[in-house]
Target: DNA polymerase alpha subunit B
Amino acid sequence: ITYDPLADLVEVITRDRPDVCVLFGPFLDAKHEQVENCQLLGSFAEVFKLCLKMIIEGTRSAGSQLVFVPSLRDVHHDYVYPQPPFLYPELPKDDKSRVHFVSDPCTLDVD
Model:
């Protein structure tokens, strides 16, 4: 799976430095052809973690707050509604204050 549009978004975040960026899934879409045909180079969880890593590391210099909202089409995540937030225990300590995983639905208070 290529994440070219997502890489473009990471570049925009780095360039424009928004205070907050809310990212809605799916991050690993159950309807993607490579997912449906099991043509991935790793497990669903591994591919998802690579996607998160690309976003988090790619926007680190911008200092933007990142909010990740799951989708029912995220193949690696729970297929229940309401959806719990993503779990990402590998999140680097330095990023914990700016990276937020929320449920779907959720309410956000952005100051």
In short: Residues 4-101 form a domain with the Purple Acid Phosphatase; chain A, domain 2 fold (CATH 3.60.21.60). The CA atoms of residues 22 and 67 lie 5 Å apart. Helices lie at 4-16, 33-36, 44-58. Residues 44-58 form the longest helix (15 residues).
